[in-house]
Amino acid sequence: MLIPPTLQLDGRPLDEATLLEHQAVELSALPPVDAALALELGGVALEPFLRPGDPAWRWRWVAPGAAGAYPIVLRLVWPDGRAEEQRGALYVAPRKLDQEHYAALLDDLQRLGRALVFALSGGAEGVGAPPELDRSQPTLAEELHGLFGQELARLAAAVGRLARRPPDRLRPGAEQVAMGQLQDASRIVELRPEHDTAELRTTSPSYDSYEARLLRRLLDALWRRLELLGARADLPPDAPGRMALASEQLRALRALPFLSRVPSLVAYRGPTPRIQRDPDYRVVYAVWRQLRRRPLVRWDAATLSLPIAELPRLYERWCAASVALALLALPGYTLVSQAMLTDDGDEQLLALPNDVPLVELAAPDGAALRLRYQPRYTPGGAPLRSLDRHTRVPDLALEIVRPGEAPRVAVLDAKYRLDATGGVPEDALADAYSYLGSIGAAGQRATLGVALLYPGQTRAEHYASGVAALPLLPGADAALRVWLASVLA
């Protein structure tokens, strides 16, 4: 982008300045003769000031707590009506701590994702992983050497033998034939004298079967997994060569003529007798089971595509996943329903919808617990609503409905900012007190407590008002679990 040439930042050219989050700076510009200046930064007009004896115009600005490019517009206006604009951008770099947090949150989302898949797979039978799922996660090198090395070579050999076999079945069909060309009357399905044609029963060779559809789905799943592995940044030095070889093998297998008209399997129903007795299909099934034991876990693009400039948003979504997992780990609670996980057998997609509860649990005392992400409590809502004329949208709300009682709610709000002591800033506490008194049911306050989640390393603070400030970072969620147990007691 162009940089306004007349602007300086703390006495230095703007394009040579390095600015960090929350840094206070002074911008200055020497105007042309008789010109007045106006400066807009990040969409906000700044108030100018002058110093005695100094013709330069000056503006003070404090960088926001979010890295990124902030647009600058410098307007020059002369008394005769002439005007000129100079446009550019001021880049705010993330702090080293923010860079570390960003990398740690992205890494931990993968751990949380796998843990959530195992916890959410229990369904109404209780929280727990199905027996076939393997909790261990192979390294990238192990997956390339195994799944896309020895296992893929075995699979390619088995599929090659399957391709040389005769068709599995004959597919029924029909064709129109002129009356004068009829040779076999036993194949007639329908005569059409008005058109001087007959419809004949036909058959054509087909490889389409449950087992072949399972093979097609397996090859498609392997292709998707290889593509995602190739997009990772931590590839070992020998990975490109191995991945290129695996890609060629998969491309050749997917292009085999006997699979060209075979669709991918929609509903997996387990191994058939043919799979159990056929040595080649047993190889196909073994690789399929390996994929299902270690499913591909992916977060939706709304989570993993967030840049470092939107670190507060990433922290908020990581907190939502952490709270969901902490609830699923509560002893005695049963998972009733969930909206986070879409299970495709060989691929698991995790998302954070805000229109339905992320999870609903049944408590030992019969209460229903519903965790919501960014719920909207409006003045006219029911049963929980805003008690004033403003709509309240906390990051997370744990709604608690006990038999015969009005619903209650515990609010959790993620705050990616710290004060000078490493704790929660005062303005964040103001937000907490707003939630504490503004959400209710049947005209009465219904908020049990409010927890502010922040990326600190100080001790948790619990106030008599019902507000708590809880440090929460990857690998340090003890304060969150203690708070959840206290509001549910």
What's the total helix number?
A: 10
Which class of secondary structure composition applies to the elements?
Answer: alpha+beta
Q: Could you tell me the mean pLDDT?
A: 85
- What's the end-to-end separation, in Å? 56 Å
Q: What is the general shape?
A: extended
Residue stretches low in confidence (pLDDT < 50, at least 5 long) are 1-5, 123-133
Radius of gyration: 32 Å
Strand content: 25-35%
Spatial arrangement of strands, main beta sheet: 15-18-19-21-22-25-27-26
- What is the strand tally? 27
Number of domains: 3
- Mind summarizing the main beta sheet? 8 strands, mixed
User: How helical, in percent, are the residues?
Assistant: 25-40%
Quick structural gist:
By secondary structure, the chain is an alpha+beta fold.
Task: Please characterize this protein's 3D structure.
- With 489 residues, this protein is an alpha+beta fold.
- The protein has three domains: 7-93, Immunoglobulins (Immunoglobulin-like), CATH 2.60.40.10; 99-130 and 299-488, no CATH class; 140-178 and 187-292, no CATH class.
- The protein contains ten helices and 27 strands.
- The strands form six sheets. An eight-stranded mixed β-sheet has the order 15-18-19-21-22-25-27-26, with helices on both faces. The chain has a five-stranded antiparallel β-sheet with strand order 2-1-4-8-7, with no helix packed on it. Strands 3-10-9-5-6 form a five-stranded mixed β-sheet, with no helix packed on it.
- Strand 5 (36-41) and strand 6 form a beta hairpin.
- Helix 2 runs parallel beside helix 4 (239-254) and helix 3 packs antiparallel against helix 4 (239-254).
- The chain is extended, with a radius of gyration of 32 Å.
- The chain starts with 6 loop residues before the first strand and ends with a helix.
- The model is unreliable at 1-5 and 123-133 (pLDDT under 50).
